[in-house]
Write a structure and sequence with these properties.
- This protein has about 110 residues and is mostly helical.
- The chain is built from three helices and no strands.
- Helix 1 runs antiparallel to helix 2 and helix 2 packs antiparallel against helix 3.
- The chain is rod-shaped and about 70 Å long.
- The relative contact order is 0.13.
Length: about 110
């Protein structure tokens, strides 16, 4: 996404007419896709980190008599929520990429 946007931005000021409009539309779509994929990566990474915290909490609880079941449940629910949202953002990015796909001369 970034490489394609940089390629299009390079000569953008020297482009005129209808082609400039097409390039502007493409840049806007690439920007939307980049935001979606960035959110997806952040949320999925956060989900993985929360799962790590769940595992660490479970191991730590083996050494202490404290009841951490609520903490584990909350961390797990947050991890699943982050993963679900991350996958939804990724799915939306794939839909945007497919919708903007152009093959052959136009």
């Amino acid at each position: 996404i970034i490489a394609r946007a940089r390629l299009l931005e390079g000569p953008f000021d020297s482009i005129t007419g209808e082609y400039k409009s097409v390039v502007g539309t493409d840049l806007h779509m690439l920007s939307r896709r980049a935001r979606h994929i960035n959110r997806a990566i952040i949320l999925c990474t956060l989900s993985a980190l929360l799962v790590c915290l769940v595992i660490a909490a479970l191991f730590i609880s083996a050494f202490y008599a404290a009841d951490i079941s609520r903490l584990v449940a909350i961390l797990f629910v947050l991890a699943m929520l982050g993963l679900t949202l991350g996958l939804l953002f990724f799915l939306r990015e794939v839909q945007l990429a497919t919708a903007s796909l152009r093959i052959g001369p136009h």
